[in-house]
Amino acid sequence: MLTNSKNLALVVDDEEPILKLMTSLLKINNIESIQASTHKQALKEFKDNNKFDIVIIDYFLPDKNGEDLIKIIREKEPFTPILVFSGAAQEVKIDSYAAGANFVIPKPFGEAEFIMVVRNLISLGEAKENLEEAKNIIEALGSALEARDTYTEGHGERVADLSIKIYDSLGLNNRKQRHELFVGGLLHDIGKIGVPDNILKSPDALSDEDFKIVKLHPNIGYDICKNLAGIKGSLNVIKYHHERLDGSGYPDGLDNGSIPVLAQIAALADVYDAMTTKRTYRKEMNKERAMEIIIQDAQEGKLNKEFANNLLELVRDGDIII
Hints:
Blueprint: E1 7-12, H1 16-28, E2 31-36, H2 39-48, E3 54-58, H3 66-76, E4 82-86, H4 90-99, E5 103-106, H5 111-148, H6 155-169, H7 175-187, H8 197-200, H9 208-214, H10 217-225, H11 235-240, H12 261-276, H13 287-299, H14 305-316
Helix pairs in contact: 6-7, 6-12, 6-14, 7-12, 12-13, 13-14
């Protein structure tokens, strides 16, 4: 869905009536436009303006065909949608798509079809850009946390990878859910950015007061990530990965029926990795002993028994290296 703010289009066509028609249709639909009638002029407008929400090109221009222009735009702005017009043969469509166009429609075009395609392409471009921005932010946040605490370097990646292995072992196959679990595992501890260094890097067992501060990190992580585009489905993993089925976890003390399944999977992966890697205050535990504790916790109703048994099989089969 387009935002209320006006979008900006670059419209390139050497036929004045068509250029005016497209410009008029765009304006009626709250889309401003800049016009060009040649390849050279279009390239100048593209370079002079910081951002177009869509580029609309007639494939055949007086000074050059549209293929070169498409390639230049696609290289410099990979997420900008490109719509191509052509009254020519199928080969033009193929060349346009090969150069990087998102959609090709014939001349003459229907007005309703034109606006529908433009709206859809702008929405697609916005979605792709938001996802890329979220990906960059995720990587930056993960790097920032690991820079503070070298003992947990790689912990997020390992929890994400192990969570996916558990998920797959359960026979689940929802691609969207699987992605949400991976991102949630990657960022599950991001809230520790808000934990002071003297606590985060303490070589000693934490006092009750210090542990109260550490227990704030799921809510801090949730608040950091709640407005990031593209990861809404991962927020439950970030917030609830320390909840336990018997209600003994934090931050909300949720019980069996209230803890999201993805958070339960990530919790198991988090516990395993935490025990089998070295920390400032203790040595790493061997995987056999770690699994004994996990199975015991599952039997006591803290962790999901089915998930724990699947993890045990993964460890026994050698699918888990650590």
